[in-house]
Every structure is written in structure tokens, then in C-alpha cells.
């Protein structure tokens, strides 16, 4: 059987019709995972996946299968699975073994999903290329000289290479959607607070959100439905009544024209975006130009709030209670050496940046003002959603870039997230869907179209996303 | 935004991170460039007038149903780089 064309939905149908066993399915995906080891998508392929498949088969045989029973999934290296190492692709947590399951892990385990392995990422989810992993870059399956995007680059590459049917990422400023666009898969950043963050190694807690990477929008919905829900262990998770808004089929798509046409966007990306919008128009959507000037400030807000939270969250990693330890002459030196050696370059840079914007005398000038602009951006988006149902932008300003191309210029690297970051700043949901290709050196590189919805508007994103999949013509 | 080497040293000290001399120079340059970029929030807020108030509130869990004593002790202490029985071992601070 050709497993490369399988989706979660199709594999589920085969499993419940007994046309394939969970073990056979897992064996085939494990083979692909081993055959594509040169991509460096995985930090570890779990040795108990086949046991889990046998357990899943019992559930299927008992007629109690959920949509995810027996479905092989990959987890980003920052989501806790009890008993397994969760390293955040950092030397700091190289040997850290999770002492409990993350909220999503419990839900997916109960649904009978197979955990195939943990995937490579930018250290502590800080980056847009996986080049910040302490264990080397992941290669883009479409062109191995290029990055897969980041920080969930391993999860995107593992899926695009056909080693799993879905994977989990975390998105703080675009870390699910940007790699999804670069690798030609679907990536969803849910509304902040709809999926539990319990057991997700924190980067910037007010922006982090776990979400699925899948081959189709339908699969994205299946995984999202399995993961969503209130969790008392995450005090920022919303009660369930927030999570089921009355569903309204989206009809009007807003296009923030000035924002989309900003400096630095590849003209071929713009052409692809305009073609995609035209296709939505042809199938009956109304396209409305909107003005949202505050979106352009999203990235500046992000590079104040995010490092501020990073510097606070990562203060717990001191080489004393867990993680990497380096011995110094006294306790203070133990801290400074453990942190200096355990953290990679980008992590150290962001901790220092966060320390700066939070320090006495600068707090109001940076953090305080960034919070005010965040509020402005949220209010502007809320107003925009009074007139349109969803908003469309390209997911990224360019296709996947070369490994090493931006590694020494952090600001250029940060600009790769210009279209995705405002979504996290506002807390709203967004989805990236493959929208076509650009050709570079004879290789077709994927692009993504991003739909942004109002808070708790995932249903509108799925509806418009499925329409786009049917209309895009590949 | 001009950042000096002594600023980088001060920040590294506050953040409890050892930074090499060669990295200090790179950080001085990078932090300056990033801070210049993010300073646009100052211009944006200059026209805002009244300070915006956030819409967040604290959510506390009920203080009830404690887990049984020692149910997590071994897992947690085992993660420490150095231990002495059920204690995490650290250097003396006095």
C-alpha cells in the first residue's frame, strides 16, 4: 500500500474496515522515518511505538476506535510525555525526563494515537529555521539545502517526508504556520487558551499555543477537536462554553492591502497570494480591502513581550534542580556557568534582551508601551472582524531560505515571521494552507496562504480552508 | 540604539549567564539593532494618550485535594544534578 497518500481520515477508515492493522501501519511509517533519517527531523524515534500500536488494535477490535486510534503522530521536543525525554532541543535539557504527561498528551493517549517520536526544533522554540537546535538543523524535504522553517521545523519536515500522518507543534510567533508553509503542509495556531499549555515547556507563556500540523484541513480539524478543551492545570485555558461559538459560514474575506504589500515580500509570493484570493472570489467569497496599520507593529511588540517572558520563564533553569550543570567556585558561578554553557547563542541573546526591556528605567519605555500597542492591535482586529469573517495574508514573505542564509543576522531572521506574529499578539486563531509553489534552481518550493479568524473562530477557518483546498487546483 | 560592552556585561550578570568576550561584541551589535527596531512602539504610543489598561485577571485553582505525600518526590529529586537522599544538593551560600 502507498502510505504517502494517506491522511488521518483515510487511515482511520482503513483501520476500522480492518484493511490494515495498526501495527502494519505503524511499521510502514517507522520504516519511512528511518529511511529519511538524513533530514534530522527527529530527536528520537520511540522504541515502544509498536507496543502502542498493538494496544490501539485492541481498541479497534473492540469497536471503540476514535478518529485517532492507531494514527501515528510526532511530538515536538517541548511537549511532555511521561517517562520520555523532553529536551526542547537544548543542551540544557538533554537528559530531562518528563515526570508527567502534558494535557494534550493525555488527551491523545486516551484517543489511542501512536506516539512515533519527538521532533527537532529551534532551542526552546526560539527561531524560524531549526538552525538554533543544539543538535543541528533539520533539512527541508522539498530541498535539502534549505531550512524547513521553525521553530516546529522537525514536526513539519517529519510530516512532509511522510513519516507520520500528523504532528504537534507549538506556535508563539508563527512556529507552526511558518514551517507548515515552508514544507507544504497545513498548520493551525488555535485561539490562545483553547488548547492546554500544561506540560508544554514554556517560552513566552502569554503567546504560546500548541497546535496540529497535518496534510489536510479536515485532519487539522480532527486533531484540534481531540486536543481542545478546558484544563484546570492551565489557568489560562478557557472554560468550554467559550469554545463553541455559534457557527456561521464565512462569506467575506478581508485583505489588509498595505500590510500584505510591505517591503521585503517576494513578488512571486504576492502573485501567488493574489491568485489564491481570486480563486476564493470565483467560488463565491466576497473580497474586501481593509486597512489595519497596527498589524505592521506586531513584530516590534513581539520582540519586546516575548524576550521579557523568555527571560522570566528560563530563569528556572539554573543547573540546580534539573538540567545541565557546570561546576563553579560558588553557587553564583554554578548558575552563571550552567546557564552560559547550557543555553545556545539565540537563547542567550533573547534572555539578555528580555532582561534589558524589563530592567529598571526601561520597563515603561519598552514593556509598558509594547503592552499598549498590543491592546491597540487587538482592538483594531476586533473592529475589523465586525466587517469581515476572516482575514487573509500570505503566511511568509518568502519561500524556504537556504541553510545558513540568515543565521548571522537575527533581525533578518525575525522578519520571516512578519505575517504570523500579529496573530499571537492578538491571541486569535490562524491556519496556513499550501497555496502553490515558486521555482528556485529547478526545485518547487511550497508557499502558504494564511487565514486569520476572530477568537474562537476555528470553525470559520476550517470551512474557508476546505473551500480553498478544493478551489486551488492541485 | 547605542549599547556598550559594559551594558552587555551588566545584563549578563543580571541574567546569571557567563558570556565570552567575543560574544559580548556580537551581542552589543545585535541588541543595539533589535532595540532600534522595537523602539517603534514609542512613536506608536506617543499619540495614544491615556495609558491602556489590560483585560487580564488572575485565575486561581481551589486550594483543595492535595496529592499524597511523596508521590512525586523520587521523580523530581532524581532529576537534580546532585542529591543527598531526598534533598537537592547545593553549595553553601553563607
Secondary structure layout:
The complex is a heterodimer of chains A (474) and B (94).
Chain A: H1 8-16, H2 22-35, E1 42-45, H3 49-61, E2 72-76, H4 103-110, E3 114-119, H5 153-160, E4 166-170, H6 177-183, E5 186-189, E6 210-214, H7 217-227, E7 252-256, H8 257-260, H9 267-282, E8 286-290, H10 298-313, H11 331-342, H12 345-358, H13 364-387, E9 390-394, H14 410-414, H15 421-426, E10 430-440, E11 443-452, H16 458-471
Parallel strand pairs in A: 2-3, 2-4, 7-8, 7-9
Antiparallel strand pairs in A: 1-3, 4-6, 5-6, 5-10, 9-11, 10-11
Helix pairs in contact in A: 2-3, 5-6, 7-16, 10-12, 10-13
Chain B: H1 5-14, H2 21-38, H3 40-46, H4 73-78, E1 83-84, E2 87-88
Antiparallel strand pairs in B: 1-2
Helix pairs in contact in B: 1-2
What is the averaged pLDDT score of chain B?
89
Query: Average pLDDT of chain A, to the nearest integer?
Result: 96
Question: What is the CA-based Rg of chain B, rounded?
Answer: 23 Å
Low-confidence stretches of chain A: none
The largest interface is: A-B, 57 and 46 residues
Category from helices, strands and their pairing of chain B: mainly alpha
Instruction: Classify the beta-strand content of chain B into a percent band.
Output: under 5%
Count of alpha and pi helical runs of chain B = 4
Name the poorly predicted regions of chain B. Answer: none
Stated plainly, the CATH topology of chain A is called: Amidase signature (AS) enzymes
Considering the protein shown, what is the CATH homologous superfamily of chain A?
Answer: Amidase signature (AS) domain
Can you tell me the overall shape of chain A?
Answer: globular
- What order do the SSEs of chain A take from the amino end to the carboxyl end, as H and E? HHEHEHEHEHEEHEHHEHHHHEHHEEH
Q: What global shape of chain B is seen?
A: flat
Provide the descriptors you would attach to this structure in a database record:
heterodimer; A: 474 residues; alpha/beta; Amidase signature (AS) enzymes; 11-stranded mixed sheet; 16 helices; globular; B: 94 residues; mainly alpha; Histone, subunit A; two-stranded antiparallel ribbon; 4 helices; 2 strands; 4% strand; flat
Amino acid at each position: 500500500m502507498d502510505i504517502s497518500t494517506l491522511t488521518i481520515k483515510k487511515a482511520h477508515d482503513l483501520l476500522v474496515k480492518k484493511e490494515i492493522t495498526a501495527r502494519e501501519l505503524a511499521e510502514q511509517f517507522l520504516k519511512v522515518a528511518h529511511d529519511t533519517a538524513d533530514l534530522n527531523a527527529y530527536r528520537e524515534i520511540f522504541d515502544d511505538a509498536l507496543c502502542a500500536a498493538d494496544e490501539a488494535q485492541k481498541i479497534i477490535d473492540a469497536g471503540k476506535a476514535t478518529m485517532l486510534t492507531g494514527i501515528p503522530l510526532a511530538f515536538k521536543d517541548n511537549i511532555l510525555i511521561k517517562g520520555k525525554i523532553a529536551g526542547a532541543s537544548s543542551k540544557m535539557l538533554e537528559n530531562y525526563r518528563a515526570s508527567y504527561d502534558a494535557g494534550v498528551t493525555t488527551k491523545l493517549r486516551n484517543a489511542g494515537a501512536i506516539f512515533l517520536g519527538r521532533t527537532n526544533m529551534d532551542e526552546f522554540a526560539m527561531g524560524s529555521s531549526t538552525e538554533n537546535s543544539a543538535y543541528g538543523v533539520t533539512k527541508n524535504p522539498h530541498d535539502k539545502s534549505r531550512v524547513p522553517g521553525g521553530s516546529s521545523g522537525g514536526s513539519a519536515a517529519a510530516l512532509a517526508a511522510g513519516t507520520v500522518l500528523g504532528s504537534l507543534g507549538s506556535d508563539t510567533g508563527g512556529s507552526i504556520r511558518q514551517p507548515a508553509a515552508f514544507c507544504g503542509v497545513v498548520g493551525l495556531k488555535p485561539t490562545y487558551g483553547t488548547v492546554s499549555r500544561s506540560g508544554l515547556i514554556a517560552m513566552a507563556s502569554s503567546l504560546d499555543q500548541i497546535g496540529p500540523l497535518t496534510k489536510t484541513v479536515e485532519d487539522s480539524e480532527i486533531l484540534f477537536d481531540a486536543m481542545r478543551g478546558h484544563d484546570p492545570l492551565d489557568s489560562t485555558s478557557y472554560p468550554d462554553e467559550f469554545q463553541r461559538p455559534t457557527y456561521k459560514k464565512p462569506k467575506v474575506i478581508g485583505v489588509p492591502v498595505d500590510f500584505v504589500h510591505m517591503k521585503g515580500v517576494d513578488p512571486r509570493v504576492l502573485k501567488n497570494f493574489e491568485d489564491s484570493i481570486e480563486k476564493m472570489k470565483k467560488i463565491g467569497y466576497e473580497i474586501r480591502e481593509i486597512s489595519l496599520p497596527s498589524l505592521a507593529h506586531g513584530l516590534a511588540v513581539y520582540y519586546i513581550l516575548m524576550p521579557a517572558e523568555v527571560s522570566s520563564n528560563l530563569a528556572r533553569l539554573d543547573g540546580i534542580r534539573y538540567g545541565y550543570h557546570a561546576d563553579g567556585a560558588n553557587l553564583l558561578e554554578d548558575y552563571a556557568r550552567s546557564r552560559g554553557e547550557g543555553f545556545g547563542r539565540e537563547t542567550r541573546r533573547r534572555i539578555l534582551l528580555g532582561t534589558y526591556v524589563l530592567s529598571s528605567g526601561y520597563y515603561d519605555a519598552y514593556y509598558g508601551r509594547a503592552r499598549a500597542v498590543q491592546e491597540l492591535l487587538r482592538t483594531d482586529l476586533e473592529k475589523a472582524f465586525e466587517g469581515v469573517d476572516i482575514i487573509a495574508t500570505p503566511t511568509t514573505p518568502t519561500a524556504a531560505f537556504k541553510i545558513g542564509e540568515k543565521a548571522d543576522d537575527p533581525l533578518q531572521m525575525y522578519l520571516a515571521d512578519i505575517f504570523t506574529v500579529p496573530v499571537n499578539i492578538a491571541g486569535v486563531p490562524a491556519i496556513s494552507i499550501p497555496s502553490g509553489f515558486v521555482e528556485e534552481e529547478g526545485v518547487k518550493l511550497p508557499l502558504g496562504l494564511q487565514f486569520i479568524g476572530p477568537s474562537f473562530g476555528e470553525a470559520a477557518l476550517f470551512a474557508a480552508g476546505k473551500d480553498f483546498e478544493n478551489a486551488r487546483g492541485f | 540604539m547605542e549599547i556598550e560592552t559594559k551594558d552587555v556585561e551588566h545584563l549578563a550578570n543580571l541574567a546569571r549567564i557567563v558570556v565570552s568576550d567575543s560574544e559580548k561584541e556580537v551581542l552589543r551589535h545585535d541588541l543595539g539593532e533589535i532595540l532600534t527596531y522595537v523602539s517603534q512602539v514609542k512613536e506608536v504610543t506617543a499619540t495614544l494618550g491615556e495609558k491602556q489598561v489590560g483585560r487580564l485577571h488572575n485565575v486561581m485553582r481551589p486550594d483543595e485535594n492535595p496529592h499524597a505525600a511523596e508521590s512525586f518526590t523520587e521523580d523530581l529529586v532524581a532529576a537534580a544534578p546532585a542529591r543527598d537522599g531526598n534533598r537537592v544538593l547545593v553549595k553553601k551560600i553563607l
